[in-house]
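Extended Data, panel c. Modelled sequence:
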Amino acid sequence: MKHVEEAVPDAVDIRLAARLAALRAEHGWSLGGLAERSGISRSTLSRAERAEISPTAALLNRLCQVYGRTMSRLLSEVEGEPAPLLRADEQPVWEDRASGFVRRSVSPPHPAFRGELVEGRLAAGADIAYDRPPVPGLEQHIWVLEGALEVTAQDVRHRLGAGDCLRLRVWGPTRFRCADDIEARYVLAVVLP
């Protein structure tokens, strides 16, 4: 019989769990009420709020949609007040281990600004589908730095190579897929409507 060790949550996962629980409490919702609004099971929500699981990008996207904030804004809320200058080694990094997605907040969101920059890295073969945008009408500029990225939005698939940039407004489901046998690295500029 194989012994499986449970992963110990890291500090970001613990702070994220606490923020998710606080957001639900601020809205006065039960786990059942949030489950109905988000389409995420009560048990998964409970485990995420207790840092028993590290939420996937797709799960966080659904919660962001319910709470009306971008993923960057949610993640910045667990990092503290952003500085005007953020050195490379200080930029918050979040990893969705299940999907092979690594996200660096190059310029974390700030209430006084509508835009932010994110560096995304998708492992070879990684595929992330979002069933809805965190904020309807969100403007995105996707600039591929290395590798190839396939982005599907409004039922149109775009294949982007190094140097290519796709600009769009997100109204419905989107999908990001590493379209090569090497990691895809890209910059995502996000602008609130």
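Confidence is low (pLDDT under 50) at residues 1-5. This feature is highlighted in the accompanying rendering.
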